[in-house]
């Protein structure tokens, strides 16, 4: 694999993880395609015959699809594969956890820094459920100087990705090279903040893209941040990680030239999203840029795809996924202080063939 902190699977663990990968590929390939045919050829025509119209929203599609055995089977398999994925990597992490904890301890001359705050209150919205069905969620700690949550998350994403050689940094790379470098070729930020950085995968590309900048990453979870710091150090990247709530940080006003996040917004409730936008505005220096990246919103999707997307909320412990995708983020940004003329919301093509959504604001 690609950095020294990621846990190494033995023969049997790797076989199990490869099975999960294959199962997921089959599920999101053939099974999902077959399910769409069931909707197009059976469910939708029957609905139109009975109602003299097409389904008006994703909720009507869900009510009809929930009666179909093929959807019940697909939905069950989707949940099972998610749980199997985490189980397959937890075994690997548990076996190596003492070594990972030791490896994560600071070197003599670390490049970056790590600042934890044991007094920080973790919001209930992050502790009430195991996000993504990851056992214990992001904020669990099992031992002193724990890094388990970070290692589980990083290895789990590796298993879920179709490109195992990747550093899982496609979102950060896309924001930089498909937007910032193209739209702002002369932009040279002095300080950059990544909100909700988790293991720092999408934070590190900013170190390479803007080598003269100071790069900061914040998250709520201490075990994730210990892992993030060690991961960055092992890759030779200087990042300053700290345990903070993106709704209200301890940085002074106008501290940053660039404030970004990558798939943070769908992990938090609407009131927290509003706070994050307000905090982004407060932290930006004059001329600074805010970019929040996430998956496509419901308005970008046809109704059937929106129904499939909605499964993340109904079946994958993503309680805020759908509410965020219904939100008018331009209005949220304006309420936070950004002028309408400074706002851009658009889709970007990622190198993996998927699209992502960004909302951009300038101060």
UniProtKB/TrEMBL annotation:
MF terms in GO: methyltransferase activity
Keyword field: Methyltransferase, Transferase
Regions crossing the membrane: none
Gene3D superfamilies: Vaccinia Virus protein VP39
Name of the protein described by the UniProt record: Class I SAM-dependent methyltransferase
Species per Swiss-Prot/TrEMBL record: Okeania hirsuta
GO terms classed as biological process: methylation
Methyltransferase domain ranges (all copies): 192-288
């Amino acid at each position: 694999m690609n950095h020294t902190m990621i846990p190494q699977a033995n023969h049997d663990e790797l076989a199990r993880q490869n099975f999960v990968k294959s199962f997921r590929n089959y599920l999101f390939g053939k099974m999902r395609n077959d399910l769409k045919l069931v909707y197009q050829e059976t469910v939708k025509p029957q609905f139109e015959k009975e109602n003299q119209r097409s389904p008006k929203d994703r909720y009507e599609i869900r009510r009809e699809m929930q009666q179909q055995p093929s959807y019940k089977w697909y939905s069950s398999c989707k949940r099972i594969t998610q749980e199997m994925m985490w189980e397959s990597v937890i075994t690997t992490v548990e076996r190596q956890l003492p070594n990972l904890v030791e490896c994560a301890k600071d070197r003599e001359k670390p490049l970056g820094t790590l600042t934890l705050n044991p007094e920080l209150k973790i919001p209930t919205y992050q502790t009430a459920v195991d996000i993504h069905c990851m056992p214990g969620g992001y904020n669990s700690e099992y031992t002193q100087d724990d890094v388990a949550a970070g290692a589980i998350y990083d290895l789990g994403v590796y298993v879920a990705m179709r490109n195992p050689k990747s550093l899982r940094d496609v979102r950060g790379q896309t924001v930089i090279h498909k937007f910032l470098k193209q739209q702002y070729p002369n932009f040279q930020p002095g300080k950059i903040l990544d909100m909700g950085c988790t293991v720092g995968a999408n934070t590190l590309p900013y170190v390479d893209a803007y080598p003269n900048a100071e790069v900061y990453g914040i998250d709520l979870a201490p075990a994730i941040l210990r892992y993030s710091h060690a991961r960055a150090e092992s890759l030779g990247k200087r990042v300053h990680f700290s345990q903070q709530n993106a709704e209200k940080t301890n940085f002074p006003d106008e501290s940053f030239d660039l404030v970004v996040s990558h798939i943070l917004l769908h992990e938090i409730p609407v009131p927290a999203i509003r706070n994050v936008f307000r905090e982004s505005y407060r932290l930006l220096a004059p001329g600074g840029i805010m970019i929040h990246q996430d998956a496509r919103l419901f308005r970008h999707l046809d109704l059937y795809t929106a129904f499939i997307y909605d499964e993340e909320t109904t079946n994958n412990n993503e309680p805020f996924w759908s509410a965020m995708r219904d939100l008018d983020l331009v209005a949220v940004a304006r309420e936070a202080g950004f002028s309408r003329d400074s706002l851009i919301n658009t889709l970007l093509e990622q190198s993996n063939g998927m699209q992502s959504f960004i909302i951009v604001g300038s101060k």
